[in-house]
Design brief:
With 163 residues, this protein is an all-alpha fold. Helices cover 78% and strands 0% of the residues.
Length: 163
Amino acid sequence: MKSFLESICMILRVLLAVLVGALIIPVAMQVIARYTGVIPVYLWTEELATFIFVWVVMIGSALAVWHGEHFDVKVLKDSENATIAFIQKAIVHISIACFGVLFIWYGIDYVNFGYIQHSVMMNANLVVTHISVPFVGLLWLIFSLYRLYEVFLEYQLTTKVVK
């Protein structure tokens, strides 16, 4: 299972690199148009940059969950007690999984809302960006549940060693 999820993350990393590379084009066009006047100001470049940026943020957040680099507020210091440390880590992963479920659940309505809308300049269907919400929710759910499973296995190993 871990190798399968690592493969998904590798695909996400490649996609992220391609999107960041693609983001350079409309942003560069905007900068050149505004400060040099060499090319006319194209308004569609701003929409395209926004669409790409939404996907970059969403994919980046999913990769952060996989690598454990997501935003995590430490209210209490890490416990030396294995059970309390397990509970602390489990709360984080369960919270992320719950947010993943919320993003999936409400993201479906959000996608339906985007399906009936089109962008002003590019006339692109907004489902292109709206679908990123349930997609990333699914990734958060899968990745956090797998990390919870790993934390549980780690807890079992530490408690067996202690006994």
